[in-house]
Design goal:
six-stranded mixed β-sheet, about 50% helix, alpha/beta, about 400 residues
Length: about 400
């Protein structure tokens, strides 16, 4: 104990202020591990004792990410059995989900070199079915209530988007869509509303997905923003009674596919003049002029413009302060990007439950991040005119 106090005293005297907290955390964590291993082995390191239960087998290095920065740890290893400190167990929910998916892949025979590397990087030497079941159950107990929670209040804006992953079904590897929904409520704050696995983008899927959200309490929707998924527009009108905004970014990609490589920049500039207008009427008029100008040389593009005018310019009938956020699915791109980054690590999912487990955990993290942000996504003053239950801000009382 005296030696430990001297080591701590030396640390206090020599460590710069910037590194002090991180080094203190590392010192305390290392001491906790040594005490824990001593209790498991029945003897201190290097001590000869007839009561010894196990032998040490060196250390393995591991970086521990903390709020104070990265702490380098040396985790003791045992010759028989394994040791992992309890204080490292509560990793981020999505990281646990990755571990669970990888372990499930092992159990179901989906073993690849990349999965082996990931397992070692996660500090796992072996896997058992009982451990898989325990870990998956722990994650599901948190993810499922989150995805099935009641949706309270009104939600003027809802974004829908899909990303694709590979999964094993019936002995085959198929591509399936993960559909996520986020919304902005009458308080101007964002939340994750729902998640579903979409084997096909038929009208029946969209109808059922939106009905699930409605059964959980989704109401007050004025505008749904998404790409032009088959059957979605009809489902939005039937289930939610809302307008539909066709993602402006996705539409531009579709439109430019009808132009030559050299002419795409000119066509893009032409269409952009409609978006630059200050009102819905002016934008519609400019849109039709652009279509007429392109009709002679690019009739298919002109026909596309005629067909999509109402859907692509729907955002202009809402408060101008919201136009940049409701004209496309860009607000949902960051969660989608994080989903892609994490799911690419896994590669091929063993089943649909594994997809929901991992993606649900990622969405929980995103939802928590939005919840603690001080600034609202949309201000109360701008969202109140379209909210069914606007929050009234009383004027300050003069002293």
């Amino acid at each position: 104990m005296t030696d430990e106090r001297m080591a701590l005293q030396s640390l206090l005297e020599k460590t710069p202020d910037a590194d002090f907290l991180r080094r203190m955390i590392g010192f305390a964590a290392q001491r906790l591990m040594e005490l824990d291993v001593e209790s498991r082995t029945g003897a201190a390191r290097g001590e000869r004792s007839p009561d010894r239960l196990a032998q040490r087998n060196g250390y393995r290095d591991r970086d521990w990410e903390t709020r104070a920065g990265t702490v380098e740890l040396r985790i003791p290893k045992l010759r028989k059995g394994s040791y992992f400190p309890d204080f490292l167990e509560p990793r981020r929910m999505a990281e646990k989900a990755i571990a669970a998916v990888v372990q499930e892949a092992y159990v179901h025979g989906v073993s690849t070199r990349s999965v082996d590397d990931l397992v070692r990087a996660l500090g796992m030497d072996g896997v058992s079915k009982s451990e898989v079941s325990r870990l998956c159950e722990e994650i599901d107990d948190k993810v499922k209530p989150f995805l099935g929670r009641p949706i309270e209040g009104d939600w003027p804006y809802v974004w829908l988007d899909a990303t694709y992953v590979k999964v094993r079904r019936g002995g085959r590897i198929v591509s399936t869509a993960i559909v996520i929904a986020i919304g902005v409520n009458g308080d101007g704050r964002r939340e994750v509303l729902g998640l579903d696995i979409c084997p096909s983008e038929a009208a029946t899927f969209w109808d059922e997905f939106l009905r699930k959200l409605a059964r959980r309490g989704l109401r007050g929707v004025k505008l749904v923003i998404s790409d032009a998924h088959e059957g979605l527009k009809a489902a939005i009108a039937k289930v939610l009674g809302a307008s539909w905004q066709r993602c402006r970014v996705h539409f531009m990609r579709n439109a430019l596919a009808h132009a030559s490589k050299n002419g795409r920049r000119v066509v893009s500039a032409f269409i952009a003049t409609a978006f630059a207008q200050g009102s819905a009427d002016a934008a519609g008029k400019q849109w039709r002029q652009v279509a007429d100008q392109l009709r002679a040389k690019l009739p298919r593009l002109a026909a596309l413009l005629d067909e999509a005018e109402v859907d692509v310019l729907a955002f202009m009938t809402f408060p101008r302060e919201h136009w940049d956020k409701i004209s496309s699915t860009n607000p949902i791109e960051r969660p989608n990007g994080e989903i892609k980054r994490r799911t690419n690590i896994v590669g091929i999912f063993p089943n649909d439950d594994a997809i929901v487990r991992l993606v649900g955990a990622i969405l929980m993290e995103q939802n928590d991040e939005w919840a603690v942000q001080r600034a609202r996504y949309m201000t109360l003053e701008t969202i109140a005119p379209i909210s069914d239950n606007p929050i009234v801000i009383l004027p300050a009382v003069a002293a």
